[in-house]
Amino acid sequence: MLRALKHHWPEYLIEAWGLGLFMVAAGVVGTLVFYPQSPAYQAIADPFLQRVVMGLGMGLTAMIIMYSPWGKRSGAHINPAVTLTFYRLKKIAAWDAFFYVVFQFIGGLLGVVLVAFLLQTPFTQAPVNYVVTVPGKQGAIVACIAEYFIAVLMMSMVLFTSNQPKLERFTPFFAGCLIVSYVIFESPLSGFGMNPARTVASALPSGIWTAIWLYFLAPIAGMLTAAELYLRMIGPRKIFCAKLYHDPLYRCIHCGHLIHWHRPHLR
């Protein structure tokens, strides 16, 4: 554990920064789009167009994080479900997976707290409510099913494209496009969580824990399902690394690229 912290702490902090930035963007864009007194809300009153704007904001933010130098270094998981899936695939060491998840939760929460401090009531009160994720009118079961399937699709895309030499550099772009579509079309069903740390980051300060179980169960189960399908259809030898985009210019604590010390003991 101490060795992992000593050598890999920059990657852990990057994971916190990544989800923190994502939550800052979610909070700012969400307030601009959904707060009734916002000029953007008054200019775009149609719920569908509001979701389009929100989706574009979140999709572009995700792409910026993944394509950034820091994102390329850590692999830009910024999601415990992603990290746990790569751990299942034996592409990330146990202590690295543990600290990735811990710092994702910390970063997401700090991002929400920062937005709450800066924007205050417009962000913390209804209808924005800390951009909390709650089931739609169809209920928790429908929300759980929806969260499960979007997680399956996201991880399936990540595994397929990130392990294709001609497609790997487009993985962040495809992920961003999926996020845009999820916000537009899926968010009315579940609020679009697909990330336990993202959901807790909003739930903790807001005190809104509605159907919190599904925002843990569905994303993790969905991404693990995608991993199992990939293993059975394509095989473990076709999984290169735990990074969403493995840029050779940046060190990799997962596959050892540009690292000159031995790390099997960390597994």
Portion in helices: 55-70%
Query: Radius of gyration, Cα only, in angstroms?
Result: 18 Å
pLDDT < 50 stretches: 260-267
Q: What's the mean pLDDT score? A: 94
Helical run tally: 11
Instruction: Give a quick account of the main beta sheet: strands, pairing sense, barrel closure.
Output: none
Number of strands: 0
In one word, what is the shape? globular
**Percent of residues in β-strands:** under 5%
Task: Give the class from helix and strand content and strand pairing.
Answer: mainly alpha
> How are helices and strands ordered from N to C?
HHHHHHHHHHH
Span of the ends, CA to CA: 10 Å
What does this 3D model show about the protein?
There is one protein chain. With about 270 residues, the chain is an all-alpha fold. The chain contains eleven helices and no strands. Helix 1 runs parallel beside helix 6 (about 95-120), helix 3 (about 45-65) runs antiparallel to helix 9 (about 170-190) and helix 5 (about 80-90) runs antiparallel to helix 6. The radius of gyration is 18 Å and the shape is globular. Residues about 260-265 have low confidence and may be disordered.
